[in-house]
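Feature request, filed as a ticket because there's no other form

It would be nice if the structure record came with a short human-readable summary line next to the tokens. Right now we just get the raw output. Example of a typical job, pasted below so the devs can see what we mean:
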Amino acid sequence: MLASTSLISSCENSGNQANPDLSPTGKPTIAAVNYPLAYFAERLSAEFAEVLFDPSPGTDPAYWEPTDNQVSSIQQADLILLNGAGYARWTSSRTIPYEATVITSTSFEDAFIKLQDGIRHTHQRGTASHTHEGVASTTWLDLMQASAQASSTAEALIEQFPEHSDSVSRELESLLTDLGDLDRQMRTTTAALRGADLVVSHPVYQYWTRAYELSAHSLHWEPTQELGASEMSELAATRTEGASARYFIWETQPSQENLDKIKIAGFINIVVNPCGGRPRNGDFLKVMRENISSLNQGIPQGASTGAVEP
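Raw output as currently delivered:
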């Protein structure tokens, strides 16, 4: 019984044999705790394996609670990909087979961002509350860290399925090229945000802001929640002195009413989707490209840190 995912360091038992009966297709199964890892695994192992990722679109895998049957399926997978950094809290209270498990962020765990405080809140009315505390876990929003996690996934696949090492290595090269291109585009696009007033709707952008040299104030708002007087006062309190540009980053598309209120408050609305869960349309690369497009559209042409009209 593993009390914490921090006790798992790597997929060390290369003698673990694939069980072709676990998948209806007769292929070995790879389980992932979030969509970025599922996407990496799908890219790298499409020729020989099936990827198991149960949270439905619209569900946050960080706080997803699998059923006993779902846990059983994950436990029987030939390879289990964890994000690390405290992501997917259910993994700390369930039995996970050590020999089949790899933590994909181990190579940069010394760079994890510790959260300064924990604030309890809910994601929507009627749901259980939770606290953001401990270590920031959306590691892949630094796209170079995403590349490291993709490489770790490839290493685990080659160790577990050495007969497919050539195809995994080939696909990894293509995947790293895509992620590198995204990183360069993101770095270029976000340059105009450096020094601006940047407010994010949820405390999940820590690695993104660090990687791209940004500074942001985090709130705990949902895209469709009603923004009343207290919320607008909270937003007003984030504004710094001077006439700097002001941008508000949402996780997903907010309601039109919220868009209007943020605009009236003097901020430019931009959506940057962390893509922790499977998107309803497209894939991880498509969502990241849409994020870059959203940033490009939201930042006025030629904008720097000077005043702009929202």
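Something like this underneath would help us a lot:
Residues 1-22, 118-130, 305-310 have pLDDT under 50 and may be disordered.
The longest helix spans residues 165-190.
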